[in-house]
Amino acid sequence: ETGVTQSPTHLIKTRGQQVTLRCSSQSGHNTVSWYQQALGQGPQFIFQYYREEENGRGNFPPRFSGLQFPNYSSELNVNALELDDSALYLCASSLGNRQGATLHFGNGTRLTVT
Amino acid sequence: RKEVEQDPGPFNVPEGATVAFNCTYSNSASQSFFWYRQDCRKEPKLLMSVYSSGNEDGRFTAQLNRASQYISLLIRDSKLSDSATYLCVVNFQKLVFGTGTRLLVSP
After folding, report:
1. Does the CB of A99 have a partner CB in chain B at under 8 Å?
2. Three-state secondary structure call for residue A14
3. Beta strands A87-94 and A31-37, pairing class
4. Strand, coil or helix: A79
5. Kind of pairing, strands A74-78 and A64-68?
6. What is the CA radius of gyration of chain A?
7. How many Å lie between the alpha carbon of A81 and the closest alpha carbon of chain B?
8. In angstroms, what separates the C-alpha of B35 from chain A's closest C-alpha?
9. From B32, B44, B91, residue closest to A43, measured CB to CB
10. What are the pLDDT digits (tens) for B30-51?
């Protein structure tokens, strides 16, 4: 069984740039959720994708966008980066979009915006 | 008021001690509850779900009090390997994580 993998592991960008983070879901999982975890905080829900469509969104501005592909892998895109976007970005996959389905997290991408 | 509130700690306890964490949530319509564990610089992992009747998994016991809107986690006979951050998670339309409670178990 292949777990959730994210790339890159670390990334440094400057303010105003754009970034794309990638996630491969666990084998057999069709739902991907993205979370932002700032230092000393819990993960904050960004959005969820189920069968290639956005299926719920947290309190993040439109410059945070995503995609899910037919193989259920996913991308998180952030435009016009701000210093406060510096965080650990976690991708989690689950089977089905049932509320409360167990999330399997990837190791995360640590983004630093300077 | 935050949707999910936890004492950030850290809780410093010796090996073998019993330690308890509480978590309160604001939305009374919340449907399911979990505890996740996160090791330093690692991803969160599900520790256990929390059921209304309370549930136990080895040294770990979780309780839910819907009337008072809080959940708890009790760890008995603490091990060094229990040192981690414990995240309280509440589900209402989406999973909402608390900030986590840091536990340090010392020899």
Report:
1. yes
2. coil
3. antiparallel
4. coil
5. antiparallel
6. 13
7. 23
8. 11
9. B44
10. 888 999 999 998 999 999 999 8
